[in-house]
């Protein structure tokens, strides 16, 4: 079933900002069809790690492997080519553009004369929303008219353009209502069902334990425990705070 | 051409109704986007549907502007159904004709706790009502299902350890205090039995068993058309029938219960080395995709569950066994071996051989049951003297007035 080689592996990855040790010798593996949660206190290095995977930051030392092959993710577009799609905390959507334009932002389909293939993008967006069971009435609605949860859904749909194999979600349920959280968690389950590897970064242990296969704890930039989803709230909390 | 035009009109009407159903409530402008029809067509169709009393239009605000919210027509009042599962919470709002207006699923962590989950359930009920443009006071009652034996009056779990994190919580009281609406609680398998015997596969049957096979196994017993709960609400808890005297200790504290053999952990563990980390729904999906290992696990579970159901059926002599829960979604892979195990018992083959059928409501049976439970009680509240359900209903009145403790 599951390949023995992880889709993505970080081996002894470190990243320093001057004297700040954001990541120190961090190991992480993500397999296909798996949701790996990354939890930790503020400043534990979660977002730095996400940015390393997304090609926004390059590691100071250590190795990143995709399909067991060492790679250098030197930029977000390289990450894209390697099949890594990311969603950051600040969603980076264009409020004035509609759902279709936001889903295809920067990856627009173009015809021979460089003209946008609008109809095709619209059809594909509709299919994507359907696929992820996202409920947004119209793909022509400008983003400013959507709720926070719907925007998050649009951004998750965007990650699927270009058929990625790994999706990194940084705090996707922060500042969402319960119903919107429910939607987003359901989308994450759907990504897993589609066979993708998902890295889920979140503060909310409840959400994390609801959808993850494995929970990796970071503390002061270092690995501080790996837990199955069945681990108790207390065990994980202890690892986050360093009580264990 | 006249014929095709009227069928086009029919199709467009169906599209509008579908879109409203899918989203709970949509403004006319949103309907235009969702259906791809022109604003004029949408407006005409909505008018027709309002006249036919299929949808309702009410004023709302969208993006700071006044707009017309189109929802399905609500008859008389609303009920809410809350189904607490091992790994997910489902909340639905329906009208008294049993039409589900809005629904939402929230994944839950393993061993979730009553305080967080009930808080989220309450917020989801309010959120869904908002989605269909209604207020809390339109809700006549809330039906709630728990995956453990419960005391129908207080909604408290009666056996400690089975649903860790919910022990000692007066569920009905907590939620009815929070939402100021009457809350009725029952075991999930009992709710499945209620739904299947009122609108599902056991509709015309007096004595039936409903078997729910999912994260754990439970059964609902219908005798003479009524769900039998027992003195402590543990009737039909076949998940805690002993099948292996030398087996593991179960969450209830006894040894070798059915749940320790076919519960989710027991089913997933043997697949770990070959298939990696799977969830129960992965196993169901892979079984339906013909994965041999998963089929083996599900079929063996069917045999074991069938053996225990055979014992229950021999004691109660039902006419029909209805099988629900996620494992039933594997169809004959699970049902076949179960049927085979029942066929071997001679007593079950007399006069009318015991039939085994999948739940007509599928995995929705329990949620429909929660809605049915709320509806049943709201009918009773309107006509207190004619209730067919007897003494159990006194306790319901207590919950309603907030005196949940017995």
TrEMBL record, chain A:
Pfam families: ABC_tran
GO terms, molecular function: ATP binding; ATP hydrolysis activity
TM region positions: none
InterPro entries in UniProt: AAA+_ATPase (IPR003593), ABC_carbohydrate_import_ATPase (IPR050107), ABC_transporter-like_ATP-bd (IPR003439), ABC_transporter-like_CS (IPR017871), P-loop_NTPase (IPR027417)
Listed Gene3D superfamilies: P-loop containing nucleotide triphosphate hydrolases
Keyword ATP-binding: yes
The protein's name in its UniProt record: Monosaccharide ABC transporter ATP-binding protein, CUT2 family
TrEMBL record, chain B:
Stretches for region Disordered: 382-406
Domain HTH marR-type: 13-66
GO-annotated molecular function: DNA-binding transcription factor activity
Family as reported in the entry's similarity comment: Belongs to the ROK (NagC/XylR) family.
Name by which UniProt lists this protein: Transcriptional regulator, MarR family
Species of the source: Krasilnikoviella flava
Lineage: Bacteria, Bacillati, Actinomycetota, Actinomycetes, Micrococcales
């Amino acid at each position: 079933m599951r390949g023995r080689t992880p889709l993505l592996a970080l081996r002894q990855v470190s990243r320093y900002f001057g004297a700040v040790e954001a990541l120190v010798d961090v190991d992480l593996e993500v397999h296909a069809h798996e949701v790996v949660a990354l939890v930790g206190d503020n400043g534990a290095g979660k977002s730095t790690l996400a940015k390393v995977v997304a090609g926004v930051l390059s590691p100071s030392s250590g190795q990143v492997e995709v399909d067991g092959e060492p790679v250098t993710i030197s930029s977000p577009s390289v990450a894209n080519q390697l099949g890594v799609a990311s969603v950051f905390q600040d969603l980076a959507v264009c409020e004035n553009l509609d759902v279709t334009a936001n889903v295809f932002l920067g990856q627009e389909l173009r015809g021979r004369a460089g003209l946008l293939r609008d109809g095709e993008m619209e059809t594909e967006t509709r299919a994507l929303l359907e696929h992820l069971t996202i409920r947004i009435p119209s793909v022509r609605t400008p983003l400013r008219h959507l709720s926070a949860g719907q925007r998050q859904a649009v951004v998750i749909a965007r990650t699927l353009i270009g058929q990625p194999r790994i999706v990194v979600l940084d705090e996707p349920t922060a500042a969402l209502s319960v119903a919107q959280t429910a939607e987003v968690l359901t989308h994450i389950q759907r990504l897993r069902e589609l066979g993708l590897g998902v890295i889920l970064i979140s503060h909310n242990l409840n959400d994390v334990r609801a959808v993850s296969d494995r929970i990796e704890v970071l503390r002061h930039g270092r690995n501080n425990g790996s837990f199955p989803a069945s681990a108790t709230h207390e065990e994980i909390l202890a690892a986050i705070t360093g009580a264990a | 051409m006249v014929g095709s035009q009227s069928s086009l009109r029919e199709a467009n009407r169906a599209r509008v109704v579908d879109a409203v159903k899918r989203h709970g409530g949509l403004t006319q402008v949103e309907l235009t986007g969702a259906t791809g029809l022109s604003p004029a067509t949408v407006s005409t169709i909505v008018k027709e549907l309002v006249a036919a009393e299929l949808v309702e239009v009410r004023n709302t605000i969208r993006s700071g502007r006044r707009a017309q919210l189109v929802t399905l027509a609500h008859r008389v009042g609303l009920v809410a159904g809350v189904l607490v599962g091992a790994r997910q919470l489902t909340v639905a709002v329906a009208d008294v004709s049993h039409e589900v207006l809005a629904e939402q699923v929230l994944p839950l962590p393993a061993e979730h706790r009553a305080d967080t989950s009930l808080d989220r359930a309450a917020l989801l009920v309010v959120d869904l009502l908002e989605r269909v443009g209604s207020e809390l006071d339109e809700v006549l009652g809330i039906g709630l299902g728990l995956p453990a034996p419960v005391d129908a009056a207080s909604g408290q779990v009666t056996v400690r350890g089975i649903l860790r994190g919910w022990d000692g919580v007066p569920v009905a009281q907590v939620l009815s205090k929070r939402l100021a609406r009457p809350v009725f609680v029952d075991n999930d398998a009992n709710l499945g039995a209620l739904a299947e015997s009122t609108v599902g596969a056991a509709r015309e049957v007096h004595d039936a068993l409903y078997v729910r096979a999912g994260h754990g196994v439970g059964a609902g017993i219908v005798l003479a058309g009524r769900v039998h709960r027992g003195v402590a609400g543990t009737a039909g808890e076949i998940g805690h029938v002993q099948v292996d005297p030398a087996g593991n200790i179960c969450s209830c504290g006894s040894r070798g219960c059915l749940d320790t053999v076919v519960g989710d952990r027991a089913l997933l563990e043997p697949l770990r080395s070959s298939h990696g980390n799977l969830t129960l729904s992965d196993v169901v999906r892979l079984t339906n995709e013909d994965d041999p290992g998963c089929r083996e696990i599900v079929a063996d579970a069917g045999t074991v569950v069938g053996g225990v159901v055979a014992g229950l059926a021999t004691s109660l002599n039902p006419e029909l066994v209805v099988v629900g829960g996620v494992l039933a979604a594997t169809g004959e892979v699970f049902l076949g071996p179960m049927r085979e195990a029942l066929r071997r018992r001679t007593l079950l083959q007399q006069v009318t051989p015991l039939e085994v059928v999948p739940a007509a409501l599928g995995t929705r049976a329990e949620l429909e049951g929660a809605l049915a439970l709320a509806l049943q009680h709201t009918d009773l509240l309107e006509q207190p003297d004619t209730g067919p359900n007897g003494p159990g209903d006194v306790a319901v009145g207590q919950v309603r007035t907030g005196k949940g403790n017995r």
